[in-house]
Amino acid sequence: MKKNTDSYHLMVEEIEDYAILLLDTQGNVMNWNKGAERIKGYKADDIIGKNFHLFYTQEDREKKLPEKLIEQAALNGKASNEGWRMKKDGTRFWGSILITAVHDEKNKVIGFSKVTRDLTERKSAEEMQRRIMESEEKFQKAFQASRVAITITKLSDSTYFDVNDAFVQMTGHSKEALIGHTSTELGIIVNLEKREEALQHIREHGSTKHFEATIRNKLGKILEILCSIDTILLDGEKYAINVIYDITERKKAEETEKALVQTKEGFMKLFNTSPSGMVIADIEAGRLIEVNENFLKTFGYKREEAIGLTADELGFVSNETQLRSFTKLKQQGYLRNEEVPAYTKDGKEIDTIFSVELFEMEGKQCFLCIFHDITKLKEMGKKIIESENKYRQIIEEAGDVLYTSDAQGKFTYINPRVYKLTEYTSEELIGKHFSTLIAPEWQEIIRASYRNQFKHKILETVLEFLILTKTGKKKWVEQVVIMQMEEGMVKGFQCIVRDITERKKTNLLLEEQKQTIEKKNKSILDSINYAKHIQDAIFPPKELINELLPKSFILYKPKDIIGGDFYWVEKFDTKTFVAAVDCTGHGVPGALLSIVGYNLLSKSINEHNYTKPDEILNELSKGIYNTLRQTSDGSGIKDTMDIALCSIDRVTNILEFAGAYNPLYLIRNKELIEIPADRFPIGVSYSGDVQRFTNHQMQLQKGDMLYLFSDGYPDQFGGPQARKLMYKGFKEILLSIQHLDVGEQKKALDRTIEEWKWMSEEQTDDILIIGIRI
Fold first, then answer.
1. DSSP string spanning 359-422?
2. Contact 506, 534 (CB under 8 A)
3. For 423, which of 351, 390, 410, 470 could close a Cys bridge (C-beta 3.0–4.6 Å)?
4. Looking at 392-401, 492-501, 601-610, 641-650, which range is the least confident one?
5. What pTM does this model have?
């Protein structure tokens, strides 16, 4: 053992990165290096001869961890462990230990070597990483759970990096539609200058910026917002975090508060201009504080004669009236439309309607008294009473049947017109139940309708049903039933009954005509759907397209069931021919012309052996000219075609192109190159001539992206301002997606145009886009 100890001393004494100890079989320290002294804080003289359990925490000692490690090393040759260890000064460090058994020549365990490494810094780093991850998780949870709208945008280009559900709900845009786009592209921010000013402040000063702005949600509704912008560091990159509060209601409240400030001025303006006589009196003494011009005019006073006096002192209402009105006012807190006699300054009696309301004016409770002079109205009422007999006569002679019934449905009055409708006289029906007139098959339906009206107190209903006349004839009637209420109880019904038999006959005829038209429409629609199958069958098969253009897509969206746009793919020797064609019009006329054009294109190659795009277009133009019997003087059918046609040599990668109005777009190294088309159509041009087309040629490179298209996509109306997408917008979309797989490009183009036209009523024209990756 002495020999081993000396060897150990020579080997490890100078090692300072590891604490290396030599223990006897009981775990007592026999030797100690400088590394142990540095890590654990003991001098060799402090620890030699003492048990190594001093280095363990009280908790580990109670669990007898040191003894278990010695036993494990003796049994297995080695034992390892990692955990908190104690220094001489009582502080802790995170240590990794390895205990190895030392054997003599007879393989008997004579002691142990113990190597300890201080991993406190690593443990601290791991703990810090764990806390950072927990912080990020908490931030994400708080970010998504917040009821306040929050967005994270890139400082470099202002695109949305992340948004929470509250912002999605506020704007109406889906999270997928927002991420990667700016608020400008989506038309969300209305007053951009405030936001740009705030972002510039953040970029320059790095501090929080608050500002008010307005935004527009997907449905076009304008919201007032308060926005707070600050910076946040994510994965080493700075982002802007935007906290957005909807203050629309607060703004409305502020406007209401402004309106309340002006209430007194507005009230006094209404008070002074009211057509009714009005006075304001204090509650305590009943003295008049304010009077308006109509009060002075009605009662004949001057303002200075009325202000400061009571009604009793002025004498414009009697003491008895005052007492009765005051008692009632005290009981219910207001008076409404009380009819009282009043007296003018010169003693003349007038009839008035009198109302009183309590209200607060400049912090004091006051009476607002309103007088309506109804003297002339009462005189008119007498005349109305006199005219009631005339009114009754009008009812009796009315063209419709008018009747009233009690709450049980028995006739209490019915005008003579009932005889012409039912062959019953008024006298025969008075006192009988209304069901007397209803046809048997309608009895339960009408009873149920009355019960429902009665139960739910529906004031007015309209019914159509069959009645049975006295001689057994059936007639259709329309009945308006008006419920009469009194103090919350059903008093009875007032009804108007009209003969609609002829109208019903007319409606039945119209229904038959409608069904006939629907059948014809269905027949036409079936024919158009079958025409679509024919048109689809003529178009190039998918197998041919996949063979000749393996990396390509075709986005074809006709405006109607069948369209005037069509695509054409053909091969000749080593060349592949591709065309995107737009015929005049859409629907059935466009589809008919598309079939003519498709056949003429195929003939130009297969029968006439033309291999250059300009030659093919010249032949197509000639064919349309002859087929439609067009003439240079403008007679004949003027329908034409716009087309983009190219050929690609599959061996040399040489592109040739010719076009009528529609160009070809080539994107190479993120740059869009436009190969122009001639500015005249297939067939007779606007000048009345058949013109010759221009051939363009260029060398293609691997990775080039070609696009042929009709004008349907850029001409589509939509967006927040209901305008055309335009070719500029179309080019920007193509540049943004050209790096994607062709299948993803098609999906992106389709999704974008659907979102663009979401606010528009319908698709404007047929849409056709062909994309080809070289």
1. EEETTEEEEEEEEEE-HHHHHHHHHHHHTHHHHHHHHHT-SSEEEEEETTSBEEEE-TTHHHHH
2. no
3. 470
4. 392-401
5. 0.40
